[in-house]
Amino acid sequence: MSSTDRRETRSCVSCGINISGTNAAAFKCPECGNQIYRCAKCRKQSNLYECDDCGFTGP
Length: 59
Prior knowledge:
Elements: H1 3-8, E1 25-28, E2 35-38, H2 40-44, E3 49-50, E4 57-58
Antiparallel strand pairs: 1-2, 3-4
């Protein structure tokens, strides 16, 4: 899979929508460093998210 393909398949960890080309946040999990993506709507609403790798939960 090329880096372009990976970029197109990024999804919000909270709601699951495809976030490519949107105003999404990308950050590393505070516990394990796994890359996490969240859409602007979920960030604004402070929806919970869970890291797929370690299970860390945050607002």
